Amino acid sequence: MNNFLPILGIETSGDLCSVAIMMNEKSFYEINILEKHVHSKKILALIDLLLKEAGLELKKLSHIAVSIGPGSFTGLRIGLTTAKGLGYGANLPIVPVPTFNALALQISDFVPMNNNFVIIKNASVDDLYYASPYYDGKKIGFSHELSIIKKNDIESILKNDELIFSDIDFEFATKKIIGPSALNICRYSYLFGKDLLTFDYDYLEPFYLKQFLVRVKK
Question: Model pTM?
Fold first, then answer.
């Protein structure tokens, strides 16, 4: 078996609580729960269930791939803390996977190669995550790097006839997205994660992109 397989994938950056074990390029196990605020209650039980279904011990994995952000402040910390705890206990390295890169890989399955598309996801009450990625078969690239924009500015930024994927309902045409899924966290790690592999758990922190401000009632 490829020494970079099997992979445990963890995705908790949004409402989707997702875990997967990628056995090889054609075989995988995955469980997805789309419900808010269940990550801390479900994640370890889901991982245990998948390991049993796959007939694997945790220490037999090659590594753990985890969504590193951006995304939900709490969700990302739950996923990363879980990955660190399991990795430390089983002496497994971790691959931190950029959330939007994995999502771009997921979407690229349905978009012609080298075609740009747009991803718009909710970041806060006033802000959006915005990126325009592409996949050329060798790497995930961005014609517009991931950034945060104001919701009021989105229509002025978009170009005509762009293929737009979003988790928000807009007045303009979009295709609904959820995720990325944990399987695509695994896939990204398998394709691009060898240089990201690390045992330095203490240096792994969620990538938020957005500054979180504490609002104080006056």
Answer: 0.93
